[in-house]
Design a protein that fits this description.
single chain; alpha/beta; three-stranded mixed beta sheet
C-alpha cells in the first residue's frame, strides 16, 4: 500500500485588504466589509467572528492601538486557517498573517538590528532592509504566542515557519563584524565576517526561537532560506547554519528554498543534518501543457540529484505556479506529481 501524499501550506498567503489597510492607519471601507462577508460565507465563519470587529471601525482610521492591531491580525489568522481547512490541506499554518514580512518579522524580534530603508524585492514588492549594528540575539522567544494562536484555531497538523540564518545575514547590511571595534577590536575580512554573521544568527537568534517552539509543543519547524543559493560558493555556509540551528533538538525540521537554482545545492546538502524534508518550488519554472515526460515537465528533472544526494529526505513538491493568474487544472497538477 502506498502512503498518501500529504498536502501542506509552505509559504505566505496574501493578506486581505481589510487586514493591511487598517494597520497602515487607513479607514475600513464598505468594500473591506463586503470582501470580509463574502469570504466569511465561503469559509463558514460566523458574522460575530468576522465583520463585527471591522464594523466597529468602519469609516474611521483605525488607531494604532496594540489591542486593535492584535484583534485584526487574529481575524486574518482565522480566515487563513479556515481557507486551508476548506481546501483540505493536511498540514498548515496561518500564512504569516501575523507577520509584516518573513525577514522583517524575525529581525524586528531580535537584538542588534536597525532598519535602514526599503528595497525592491520582485514584481512591485519591497522589503525593509536592516543592518546588524551589534551582537545578534533575542531577549524573549518571538513565536510562541503566534504558535499558540494557530493551535487554538485548528486541530490539524501544524508546521511553523521561521526565516533561516543565512537569508537573514544575506539580506542585511553588516555594520558590526566588518568594522573594527573602537577599543581593542579587530576587523574581519569579508568571508570571515559573513561566516561569523551567519553562524551567530543561527546560534543566538534562530536556534533559541526554535528551541522555545519545540518546548511549547511544536512538532515541525520549517526553516525558510530563499537566499540559500544566491552566492553558490556559500552554499556550505547555508548548510552549516541549518545544522547549527537544529542540532540536538527533537522534532521534525524541513527547509523551504524558493526562487533558487537548485543545482548549486549539490553535493553540499549531503552534509545537512536533521533535515527531513526539502520544500521546493518547481511549477514556477515548468511548462503549462499536459504530459509526464521530460520534455513536458523540465522543472522536475533536478529531483534525480536530490535522490542521489539526499536519498533519506522527503520532498515538499511545488505543483502550482504563484506567478500566473490562471488556476492550474487538476490534470496538470496530476502530471507534475506523476513526473516527480
Amino acid at each position: 500500500m502506498s502512503e498518501a501524499l500529504l498536502t501542506q501550506e509552505v509559504g505566505s498567503l496574501a493578506k486581505p485588504a481589510w487586514r493591511v489597510q487598517p494597520l497602515k492607519g487607513q479607514p475600513i471601507t464598505d468594500a473591506h466589509i463586503e470582501e470580509a462577508e463574502i469570504w466569511a460565507e465561503r469559509l463558514g465563519i460566523a458574522p460575530e467572528e468576522s465583520t463585527d470587529l471591522l464594523r466597529d471601525w468602519q469609516g474611521e482610521a483605525v488607531p494604532l492601538d496594540p489591542e486593535i492591531q492584535a484583534g485584526i491580525k487574529l481575524l486574518a489568522v482565522r480566515y487563513a486557517i479556515r481557507l486551508q481547512e476548506v481546501a483540505g490541506l493536511d498540514i498548515l499554518y496561518d500564512g504569516e498573517q501575523s507577520r509584516p514580512e518573513m525577514y522583517e518579522d524575525l529581525v524586528r524580534k531580535a537584538q542588534g538590528f536597525k532598519p535602514r530603508g526599503r528595497l525592491r524585492a520582485f514584481d512591485n514588492r519591497s522589503f525593509l532592509k536592516f543592518a546588524l549594528v551589534d551582537e545578534p540575539g533575542i531577549e524573549t522567544p518571538g513565536y510562541n504566542e503566534e504558535f499558540a494562536q494557530v493551535q487554538a484555531e485548528t486541530d490539524r497538523r501544524i508546521k511553523v515557519p521561521i526565516t533561516g540564518a543565512y537569508t537573514v545575514a544575506d539580506w542585511s547590511f553588516d555594520e558590526f563584524y566588518r568594522q573594527s571595534l573602537e577599543q581593542g577590536g579587530r576587523s574581519l575580512a569579508a568571508p570571515d565576517a559573513k561566516r561569523a554573521f551567519v553562524l551567530d544568527v543561527a546560534e543566538r537568534v534562530v536556534r533559541p526561537n526554535i528551541a522555545a517552539l519545540v518546548e511549547a509543543g511544536a512538532e515541525w519547524v520549517q526553516i525558510d532560506e530563499p537566499a540559500a543559493t544566491t552566492t553558490p560558493g556559500e552554499v556550505p555556509l547555508f548548510v552549516e547554519a541549518f545544522n547549527r540551528s537544529t542540532a540536538g533538538l527533537p522534532g521534525k525540521f524541513s527547509v523551504h528554498i524558493c526562487f533558487s537554482d537548485y543545482s548549486h545545492l549539490f553535493p553540499y546538502i549531503e552534509e545537512m543534518e536533521n533535515c527531513s524534508q526539502f520544500s521546493l518550488e518547481f511549477a514556477n519554472r515548468d511548462g503549462s501543457g499536459l504530459g509526464t515526460d521530460a520534455a513536458a515537465r523540465p522543472a522536475y528533472e533536478v529531483l534525480t540529484d536530490f535522490h542521489q544526494h539526499a536519498p533519506d529526505a522527503a520532498i515538499g513538491l511545488g505543483v502550482t505556479n504563484i506567478h500566473v493568474d490562471e488556476l492550474e487544472v487538476p490534470e496538470l497538477v496530476r502530471d507534475r506529481t506523476l513526473r516527480a
